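Dear colleague,

Thank you for sharing your sequence with our group. We've completed the structure prediction you requested, and as agreed, I am returning the results in plain text so they can be pasted directly into your records. Please verify that the sequence below matches your submission; if there's any discrepancy, let me know and we will rerun it promptly.
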Amino acid sequence: MRLDLILRDADIVTLEAGRPRAHSVGVLNGRIAGFDEELDGCTADQDLSLGGATVVPGFIDAHCHTTWWGLGLGSVDLSAARGLDEVYALLEEEVRRLDAQASMEAAAPAWVHGTGFNHEHHGGAFPELARLDAITGGRPLYIRHTSGHQSVTNTATLRLAGALVPGFEDPVGGSVVRDADGAPTGVVEESAQALIQALLLPYSRERIVEALDAATSRYAAEGITSFTEAGVAGGWIGHSPLEVAAYQAALRTGRLHARAQLMPTLDALHPVAGHASDLHGAGEGRGLDLGLAAGFGDERLSLGPVKVFLDGSLLGATAAVTEDFCGHPHNHGYLLDDAAAFRSRVDDAYRAGWPVALHAIGDEAIDLALEIITGCQEAYGPNALPNRIEHFGIARPDQVEAVARHGIAVTPQASFIGPLGDQMAALVGPEREGWLYRGRSLVDAGALLAGSSDLPVADNRVLRALQSSVDRLSDGGRVLGGTTDGVPAEGLTPEEALRSYTDWAARATGCGADKGTLRAGKLADFAVLSGNPLEVPDISALEVLATLVGGCFTHNALPLDTSTPDTPTHHALPGDPPAANDPTLPAHDAASGTRPGPGVVLPAS
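Please find the predicted structure tokens below.
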């Protein structure tokens, strides 16, 4: 049989009990054709030796914000600034750049965009509004907090947003923060950020496609072959009511370098009606026209659950908790709407065929999420995909047991532990530290834990996240959640960590039949690594050598000569991806720090 691709001389970790390890894998029509002896007598258009490199299932980031991050790649990066003077200097440099650009192009004053700001890096302080005004002049300013749940603006932006008008009232679920005298500080929280976003939205389809191209090419360099976009087309997290069309355009033009599952926000749905017997006998609910619902699409691009924000963020102390945040007496955070309103709107969406992904970080919000999901499951049964609680950030022991018992998937971010672990622990105190972004207790309870980054809140270096899942070490040296008998109490084994970003993430996104493990018939989505993550002392020290989606390279940093000596060289045909040793490929990508592989269109099934 003639195959499209054979990878040989590899240490293949399949995560399948029937054949846990292999040395060769064949690909035909984007799917796995077989392993080892099953390939006897087969030839291939491409026959490559990996020289002992490790192949694992392609990584799945089950919760990230791709368009947001892609658009932010052109913003001022404030993540490395320490001290507000460094923030001010970076903004001053950007204003000078924009002034020079406007002078050359005779353009209207452009916005000043910043990303990655974290007040903890500045002694808990936010930039002073008067200083920001002096730096930016009449230019509007929009700085996104690393949590995504706060922003920093200037007077020009607040004026455009109408927040300075006498009698202005904060929107439900958000706030334009004011000082003791009632004057705005420039900080905008939660749903009030929609006031700022409204001045920028909608982004054009082409601008979103460019952002997706930039973002997902970098995803490929991290071994990511699939991702779930946690909120499109509505609310303060969406970028256009036509956002799904931008994804389709990116796929069609070869600028979507990973498989995508899209979560519409609850705000993107609207009342729908059908026959009186439809929608579980209610005849009406909340959905999209044409009866579209979760699961629509194919393995390249599909609709996922509906995304609902129940509460805010831990870093901003706006997550809804049952006990005070440390250092914030009488502050329990808050729900972003009335609980009864959430119950009604989510019930309407669930009846229309939408499984739900409820953002709930604080334990009070998790209580509400559990009540809503279990109520819907009991009343209407399952929908096409699993129901989920996003983040599950501060979870009591009884809540761990409940998600396992009710089959609810959860997405706690191990990627937060390193850069944000000390900050999170300080906010909840030692009594609740063990509840933070759990691992071991969820696995032991039988819950479905899906790995994710929440990019750009944390980076999407999967190998770093896997190591954090195991050692739970913060950048300050804290083992988040403490130890038991010298072992991190919430730490996973290396295999469990790997499964969280492969097998379990596939199941949590409803795609376990097609990906997450490697066996014949499943999608040929691979990450090629410099070593075996199940055996090395530090998973984060490994390198991603190549990434393949449907058997096609989306990233390739393999040695130039990978053809097996006894196999004829494959001659490129029209439409083939460039070969790994194509001398026309750039040697280095300054943005990602790696030599990129060719961007390819995902193969049609």
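Summary note from our side: The first strand starts at residue 2 and ends at 8.

Kind regards,
the structure core
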